[in-house]
Write a structure and sequence with these properties.
This protein is an alpha/beta fold and about 350 residues long. The protein folds into two domains: about 240 residues, Rossmann fold (3-Layer(aba) Sandwich); about 60 residues, no CATH class. About 30% of the residues lie in helices and about 20% in strands. It contains eleven helices and eleven strands.
């Protein structure tokens, strides 16, 4: 899928094994491969527990083994470092960044104000805007504001907000760059330890770095930026970078894969610009409406009627071939880190006194 013709495993161009086509009786049919040769905007959706993150991991395994691409995962739940664990088959080259940092110049002046919840028209916001425009590091921005002739109350407010950003620990002059992210291995950027604002800043930095690097021909491989829980990043400064890739990423060869359980919470652009949609089960009326609003004319029946009912089952809307297919997603070859714990799996020593873990009363 994604190539304007049926993608075969033995094609010269890179392709990834996603699973198998599913027959009407539920049985598995021919292998289903996704095009990895050209840029794509892909949307993976599904309610909790039906496999959207699992499917994202399957795609990441395929990309890590393909030539000419640079897969990067923004991981807000901390479930993808398992890609670096031993695989059942061919090894999956993976690198995990568990302390991600970006440069201050990643964010433009407007994004700095949005990140710090400052109006550009306010005294403090105007100072931050000017500092972000003139300086390249957080410390230089701070020094510029302190050395300005603005009223003291505005200077103190601006510096306090920059100190807050500094406390997140994500800004560094030697932060991640496109060369580091543009390797052939899948790079897992673990942002699970960050709050919403710094998490969005990191994703903005990654998206901007990969896009600019391809526009300037600074990296040879074609980046694939994969975002789990994508709705989280359409409510902060990360949104601008994602929409840039969605609307302008094809020309420089930058792909974007968004996985979310809430398609109604991502922008309309994310749904309408996706040329590949992979849908697990959905039941929320708002989420169904969001997908059906962009339902292609070549789809003869409603989306709700075609949605699967079991985990691991999907329907695939492929705009390149203008077709809709039912499919089963293959098993991952690296461990899946997204399973929820069960109380039935907890082992308890029944012979241990019930108050053994209680602290002594002093």
């Amino acid at each position: 899928m994604g190539r304007g013709k049926v993608v075969q495993a033995d094609d010269d161009a890179p392709a990834g094994h996603l699973g198998t086509y599913r027959a009407r009786d539920g049985s598995s049919g021919a292998p289903l491969h996704v095009d990895l040769d050209g840029p794509h905007a892909t949307l993976i959706v599904g309610k909790r527990g039906y496999g959207k993150s699992y499917t994202l991991g399957v795609l990441a395994e395929a990309l890590a083994r393909a030539d000419g691409v640079a897969p990067v995962i923004a991981d807000p739940m901390g479930v993808f470092p398992t890609l670096g664990e031993p695989a059942e088959g061919e090894p999956v080259p993976a690198e995990v960044i568990d302390d991600p940092q970006i440069t201050a110049t990643t964010l433009d002046p407007r994004s700095w104000c949005a990140l710090l919840d400052l109006s550009p028209e306010s005294g403090a916001g105007g100072l931050v805007w000017q500092a972000a425009q003139d300086e390249s590091t957080l410390s230089d921005m701070r020094a510029a504001i302190e050395g300005s002739d603005a009223p003291g109350v505005d200077r103190r407010a601006a510096v306090n907000h920059l100190d807050l950003a500094d406390s997140w620990g994500i800004f560094d002059p030697e932060g991640m760059d496109a060369r580091e992210l543009g390797s052939g291995a899948v790079t897992v950027v673990d942002v699970s330890g960050l709050d919403s604002a710094p998490m969005n800043a990191v994703v903005r930095g990654i998206g901007e770095a990969l896009y600019r690097a391809r526009v300037n021909e600074a990296i040879p491989r074609l980046p694939w930026l994969m975002i789990d829980e994508a709705h989280t990043f359409f409510q902060g400064v990360g949104e601008a970078a994602l929409e840039t890739i969605l609307t302008r990423g094809r020309a420089p060869g930058v792909s974007l894969v968004l996985a979310t359980q809430r398609p109604s919470a991502v922008s309309e652009v994310a749904v309408s610009q996706s040329d590949i949609v992979v849908s697990h089960r959905l039941t929320s009326e708002a989420d169904l409406d969001a997908l059906e609003a962009a339902q292609p004319t070549y789809m003869q029946t409603s989306l709700a009627e075609r949605l699967p009912t079991s985990p691991g089952e999907v329907i695939v809307i492929d705009d390149a071939t203008e077709t809709v297919h039912s499919a089963n997603v293959r098993r991952r070859e690296t461990p899946h880190g997204g399973d929820s714990p069960n109380a039935s799996d907890v082992e308890i020593d029944e012979d241990r006194p019930a108050d053994a873990d209680r602290p002594d009363d002093d």
